[in-house]
Amino acid sequence: MRTLKFVAARLAGTLLVLLVVVFVTYVVFYLVPSDPAQLSCGRPCTEQNLALAREFMGLDDPAWRQFLDFLGGIVTGRTFGVGATSIHCAAPCFGYSFQQNADVVVLITERLPVTVSLAVGAALLWLVTGVGAGVFSALRRGTVWDRITLAGSVAGVSAPVYLVGLLGILVLGFTLDVVPVGGYVPFAESPVDWAWHLVLPWSVLAFSHAAVYIRLTRSQMLETLGEDYIRTARANGLRESKVVGRHALRNVLLPVVTVFGIDLGSLLGGAVITERVFSLPGLGSLLTDAVNQRDLPLLLGCTLFSAFLIVLANVLVDLCYGALDPRARLT
Amino acid sequence: MLRRDRWALAGAITVAVLGVAAVAADLLTAIEGQDPYTYRSEVLDPQTGGPAGALGGVSGEHWFGVEPLSGRDLFAIVVHGARTSFLIGLAATAVSVVLGVLIGAGAGYLGGWVDRVVTWIADVFLGFPYLVFMIALGAVVPSSVSRPLLLIVVIGFFGWPSIARIVRAQVLTLKKRNFVSAARILGASPRQVFRAELLPNLWAPIIVVATLSIPGKIGLEAALSFLGVGIPQPTPSWGRAISTAVEWVVTDPMFLFFPGGALFLATWGFTVFGDGLRDALDPKTEVRR
């Protein structure tokens, strides 16, 4: 019962957050003096065509009406224009790209597999290596290995992902010629090629992210190992591997899970930079294309979609928290 | 304290060197005899458009070589790019710190519903897809708006929640101390308590969190410029130079090496210097090293 109430309260809060995000994004995008009708009106753009385009897109309506139409579209879908030339955008309608003549949701779902492949693979890699290296470093505190790991993690935190990516392309891709440097092969086509083409992007993303996890895991581990309950576990004669692996790690994972959720959520919303460096046709490149074409509905749709993913990731983190830490369930 | 920490010292020196280069960019490029804006086709290879000569055209005349296709001096671009990066990084941090300290201290000291609302808004901000949002914003804001100013305001604005959180936590513990209670009982207004009692005790954590947030902001400016929605031509920017280097990475790796190396050194320097400051000012973390 208590769990149910907790989940319900979280979901209600999440809905409110999403609504605020939609509202803020919408206001900012439509306050900015740029006219989607003008952009998709074509050349030469006559006054008449412009007025028609405005009416078609619903830009004639007052701002609050447009916002409500947008919100309504998410729930029930919406239709632009009337009669034979009308365009229907099925629910959930997060907007319609008049420049590409496509439903924003359709455009996003087309690109989603690429970004999911990239983000999930990299996330697993950095979670395992980051936490592993962090624990290793904490258990060997003060040794040469500890210092090397720490120096490496500071370098990883500092080096921007595109720099690491370009170096990877230069060294592993061209000079040594061991891995492909870009392109995407769908999983269904050939799982081996799919993985092989993603090896470099995965490693690059993982290197940049793992650094944070190493630092976090290490400091949390050192703090946890000084706690009384660890001493009790040791005094009870538990093997060291069990003390660290079962009792300490559980506590260490709490902050790691928080960061992991946010990282994965924001990466799923579009690994913009990585996708540009490795020319992967994912959500990030969809966004970059939308930027270049000044495709406002698509920009709005992409922003909202990534907000949705981050918020969703936060909810999942909260639920994981409850599972990992009994104390969190009571609040 | 700091002097014993060799890493932090190395970071501080790196930051200082880059900072001096940023301030004295005009002087340095005058000594070299170049500037970051002049196009020079005679230093380019007419076939490829890349720099003529080995190592990206590094010579006594062009210390870091030249930019492919334009022939602009790379050393001038790197030192003037340092100016852009530092200006935006520091100014955006200042915006974040002012907002974060005021909001965080307000939430912590006043408590009650103010605290709850601020915490909630901070959570919304921390869960906001700010990179995607900034890219989109950079695309829709008309070019008549000054880009450096836009970057400073936007990057700075999105940075307040992490600072507010730390300040709020500090204020919550300070609030219970006797000297703050004494000031309050003597009739000091919240503003007086903030200025005279809280702020002097907040400087250490504020400086640490500000220093540690600078590299992220420099990196963000570079990332946005890399993606083409940051600093526009012809203002030199590390991120935009690296973005151009993508197409030249195989034929002219030196063009990636210099701006990329400068960006790496700047973020690395601020990170290790900030870590050192935190260890020096917060004894709790030092034990864990």
UniProtKB/TrEMBL annotation, chain A:
Domain ABC transmembrane type-1: 112-321
Compartments it resides in: Cell membrane
Name of the protein in question: ABC transporter permease
Any GO BP: transmembrane transport
Family, as annotated: Belongs to the binding-protein-dependent transport system permease family.
Top-level taxon in the UniProt lineage: Bacteria
Gene3D superfamilies: MetI-like (1.10.3720.10)
Topological type in the membrane: Multi-pass membrane protein
Species: Umezawaea endophytica
Keywords: Cell membrane, Membrane, Transmembrane, Transmembrane helix, Transport
Coiled-coil regions listed in the entry: none
GO cellular component, as recorded: plasma membrane
N-terminal signal peptide: none
Pfam families assigned to the protein according to its UniProt record, in alphabetical order: BPD_transp_1 (PF00528), BPD_transp_1_N (PF19300)
Membrane-spanning residues: 12-32, 114-136, 148-174, 194-214, 252-278, 298-324
From TrEMBL, chain B:
Ranges that cross the membrane: 86-110, 117-137, 149-167, 198-218, 254-274
Gene3D superfamilies, alphabetized: MetI-like
Boundaries of every ABC transmembrane type-1 domain copy: 82-274
Record flagged with keyword Cell membrane: yes
Membrane topology, record value: Multi-pass membrane protein
A GO CC annotation given for this chain: plasma membrane
A Gene Ontology BP annotation from the UniProt entry: transmembrane transport
Subcellular location: Cell membrane
Keyword annotations: Cell membrane, Membrane, Transmembrane, Transmembrane helix, Transport
Family per similarity comment: Belongs to the binding-protein-dependent transport system permease family.
Protein name: ABC transporter permease
Gene source species: Umezawaea endophytica
Lineage, highest ranks first: Bacteria, Bacillati, Actinomycetota, Actinomycetes, Pseudonocardiales
